[in-house]
Each structure stands twice: as structure tokens, then as C-alpha cells.
Design a protein that fits this description.
Length: 486
């Protein structure tokens, strides 16, 4: 009887202890991993057992709930750690849509898989405890039920709350930042063992008070496992400018086409970005490419910190992927061409320069040196290796990374791209600071202005007199001629 009880504690029911959900099935057949988690314990003593005393029946009924919790937790981890969904990466968007409608996307969560890895650690300790109890029963001349009770009492404070946790996760389909919120709330409790399991990376060794000599080592905590995923996503975003979030679980997400199409507050800007060339894609990315996903934002991370994360990632994207126009302008700027004909030629070629991968990589390394990227990664690695999530340390690290990205972005925009020179050019050519230019422009466009405007070619028609006027009035001190875009 005791051996069958030990088997039931590991999820294997039989003649003595039955599973009401499987009583019509043959012995040893498990439920499908995709079956929903039962909301109540289905492990019961067989109704035809008559040789067990009522007091022993109560003890066994209480103990076998641990076996039910273990079975359900094991099914959850098996389902959440299943990597077969990775094959859907290369599938067409149509097939992915069909998977979403049929519910196959439910298990595609890196956060759930991380939490499942933490639960596996707890279950391995529980299995070890059951094995130790079995060895002790085999060595005793008269095995008694109290030995099992004494060895497993400490797991009632762990497995029951973990079962309630996964039940809520499955019932409400919680993932991403919502899962971190749930774990953060659950870790604030008055049970040290449960708090250590969910939150702290703490080691218990030796004996529990008034319990058997059994060493329990919680090497990982559930919340820590979830934060590992978040830190990996932060490193990808803030070090490389890459949004590593395939299933929308990160609190920084790319603006979906469907969202922008139905956003009536920015129709003019969207129409303008739609007409942009490939050289201006980075501009659209900066303004509308990424946004904060509030439904995936953990409540314990302040909004101003998330805004800093968003800015730092976008800045790193700009620094690592300079636009073709800037690459040509930067090369021209370093050549210091003195003659105005060469300057005008550089102005024309600046907007037709093709991308050169080697030059792009070289300039990207200059704009964000590898040593600076390593420092950013080291700050995030320190947070990742911390035993607990410290809000103040996290904010300080993010602020430091944001300051680093902002400093290099300032060097790019103000120093290397010469923002002041561009502003001066705008003042000279569009705010009438260079009156001789507009005098020449009016003379060159006199014949054109007499004709009725042609909407299809108006912009191209004005470019010609604009450039002719610029050739006549440009001086050796002029570095930039503003681009005409009508």
C-alpha cells in the first residue's frame, strides 16, 4: 500500500488510488498534455477499499493531493517547454493566422517556458524527497505512514500555491509582462519557503526545524526565470537595436500596420511617411516604428524608465545603422572639398549614394564603439546575475545606458552631421537670410511662374531654377544646400 502511495505521489495512479478523470482508461495512461488543468483534485482512494482505518484514510487523502499537484505541474511544464512551435517561424503569415484562430499559439510564450523551467527545479527536489522516503521505508523493519507524512509536510506550502498559480495562468492565458506582474504579486507573502521559491535565489541547507535532515537548494526562482527573458530582450534592444520579440510579449513592440491604419490622429504624417524613399525609412522608424505596449508592461517598472528604454533602443538603431545619405555626407565632410562646383556635385550625389556594407559597418563602429556596447551589455548582465530585482538598481542602469546612447547620438547629430550648419542653411535659404539667392531664384523661375501650375510635375519643375540660383549665389563658406522637396 505504501509503495502504491509513493507512486501516486509522483502522478501514477493504480488500484488503491485512482484518478477520476482516468478511471475509464487503462492503468498508467496519462492525460494528453493539451488537456485543460483540472480545477479540483481528482486523486481519490478507491471506494471499495475497506481495510484502511478512517484516520489513515484522512491522512492518505491529504497526501495524495501532492501527487495531483505534481501531475498537473508536470503537465504544465511539459506543455510550456515544448519547442515544436519553433517550426512555425518559417511558416507563411496565412498559416500563422490559422494557428492563432485555432488556439495553437497559446503555448508560444518564452516567459511561460522560463517559468516552467523554474517549476521543474521545484519538482526535481520533490521527486528526490519521495525517493528518500522510499529508501527510508525499505530500510525500516516496520514501515509506517507517518514517515511519508513527516517527509512531505514541507511541500504543502509549495505545491498547492504553485498549482493555483498555473491554474490562473492557464485560465486567463497570461504571458509576457502580465506573467511578471502575477509572479511579483504572488511573491509578497508570509511563507518564507514559498517566497524563496517564487522570488529569492536563496539556498536552504541542513535541516528544517523539527523535520528530517534533508538539504533543499532552490537554485533558481520563478520570478528570476521570467526576468532572465526580460533582460535578454533588453540586451537585444539596447545593445544591438534589435527587437527580439516574435510573439508580442515585450513591453516595447513594433507598430503594427493595422494599428497605424486605424490611427486617425496622425493621418497626414502617415501619408507623408508613405511617400518617403528607402533612405528615409529610419525616420519613419524613429517616429512611428516602435511604441510602448502597456498591456505587457510590468506594473513595478515606472513609465519614465520604459520611455528611457525605448529612446535608448531607437538611438542604438540609428547609431548602428546610419542612413545612406549620412554615409555619403560623412565621407564628403571628411574630404573637405573646397571648390563650390565640387560642393554642389557632392550635394547632388549625397542623395543618390548607394549602400556599401563595409563602409556602413565602419561608420557604425565609429558612431557606437564596441567598448561602449560592451559596457551597456555588462550593466544588463549585472542586473541579470542579481539574486533579486532591485527597482533602484534597474532604474540607475537604464538611466546610465540612456545617457550613453544620448551622448553618442548628440555626437552624431550635432557634431558629425553638423546640425548647426543645416540650421544655418535653412535660415539662409528659406528665411531670406540670403536675399541674393531668392533674387536669383525669382529671376530663374520667372518664365515658370507665368505658366499655370502642373500638379504632377510642380516639384520637379521648381528643382531646376532652385539649383541654378544656388550655383550663382553659393559661396566657399557654404557647406550645405537644403534639399527641395515639394
Amino acid at each position: 500500500m505504501l509503495h502504491e502511495l509513493l507512486l501516486a505521489l509522483l502522478g501514477y495512479t493504480g488500484d488503491l488510488i485512482i484518478d477520476q478523470r482516468e478511471e475509464q482508461e487503462s492503468i498508467g495512461v496519462f492525460l494528453s498534455p493539451n488537456a485543460p488543468i483540472s480545477e479540483e483534485c481528482t486523486f481519490k482512494l478507491a471506494p471499495d477499499i475497506s481495510f484502511i482505518q478512517p484516520s489513515e484514510r484522512d491522512v492518505i487523502e491529504r497526501l495524495i493531493t501532492l501527487g495531483f499537484y505534481y501531475r498537473e505541474l508536470d503537465r504544465f511544464t511539459t506543455k510550456s517547454r515544448n519547442l515544436s512551435w519553433i517550426r512555425t517561424v518559417n511558416k507563411s503569415p496565412l498559416s500563422r493566422t490559422s494557428e492563432v484562430t485555432t488556439g495553437e499559439k497559446e503555448n508560444q510564450s518564452v516567459y511561460r517556458r522560463a517559468i516552467a523551467n523554474g517549476i521543474v527545479e521545484v519538482l526535481s527536489v520533490y521527486r528526490s524527497a519521495v525517493l528518500q522516503i522510499e529508501q527510508k521505508l525499505l530500510s525500516d523493519s516496520v514501515p509506517i505512514l507517518a514517515t511519508v507524512t513527516q517527509g512531505l509536510n514541507k511541500f504543502f506550502v509549495l505545491l498547492a500555491p504553485l498549482y493555483e498559480l498555473i491554474l490562473e495562468i492557464e485560465r486567463d492565458s497570461i504571458c509576457g509582462g502580465q506573467l511578471l506582474n502575477l509572479l511579483h504579486k504572488r511573491c509578497h507573502c508570509g511563507v518564507p519557503e514559498l517566497q524563496a521559491c517564487i522570488q529569492r535565489n536563496k539556498v536552504y541547507s541542513g535541516t528544517y526545524t523539527n523535520q528530517v535532515n534533508f538539504s533543499v537548494s532552490w537554485k533558481h526562482r520563478l520570478l528570476c526565470h521570467g526576468h532572465q527573458v526580460m533582460y535578454n530582450q533588453l540586451a537585444s534592444w539596447m545593445v544591438y537595436g534589435i527587437l527580439n520579440d516574435q510573439y508580442g510579449e515585450f513591453f516595447i513592440s513594433r507598430q503594427a500596420d493595422g494599428d497605424t491604419e486605424h490611427d486617425s490622429s496622425q493621418p497626414d504624417m502617415l501619408e507623408k511617411f508613405g511617400r518617403m524613399s528607402t533612405n528615409d525609412v529610419a525616420l519613419a522608424d524613429w517616429h512611428l516604428g516602435f511604441h510602448i505596449s502597456l498591456d505587457m508592461l510590468p506594473e513595478y517598472i515606472p513609465m519614465h524608465v520604459v520611455e528611457s528604454i525605448l529612446f535608448a533602443g531607437k538611438a542604438v538603431r540609428v547609431l548602428r545603422n546610419p542612413s545612406p545619405a549620412f554615409r555619403c555626407q560623412d565621407a564628403e565632410y571628411h574630404q573637405h572639398k573646397p571648390r563650390r562646383s565640387q560642393k554642389l556635385q557632392g550635394f547632388v550625389e549625397r542623395f543618390s549614394c548607394q549602400k556599401e556594407p563595409s563602409l556602413d559597418k565602419k561608420i557604425g563602429e565609429e558612431l557606437l564603439p564596441q567598448i561602449e556596447a560592451d559596457k551597456i551589455e555588462a550593466r544588463l548582465q549585472d542586473l541579470k546575475e542579481s539574486s533579486e530585482f532591485h527597482k533602484r538598481s534597474f532604474e540607475c542602469a537604464v538611466d546610465s545606458i540612456r545617457a550613453t546612447a544620448a551622448s553618442h547620438l548628440w555626437q552624431l547629430v550635432v557634431v558629425r552631421a553638423d546640425l548647426n550648419g543645416h540650421l544655418k542653411a535653412l535660415k539662409d535659404y528659406f528665411l531670406l537670410a540670403k536675399g541674393d539667392f531668392f533674387q536669383s531664384f525669382l529671376e530663374e523661375s520667372r518664365q515658370l511662374m507665368r505658366l499655370p501650375p502642373r500638379q504632377s510635375t510642380a516639384g520637379a519643375d521648381l528643382v531646376v531654377p532652385f539649383q541654378l540660383a544656388a550655383i550663382k549665389t553659393i559661396s566657399d563658406e557654404d557647406k550645405y544646400i537644403p534639399r527641395v522637396s515639394l
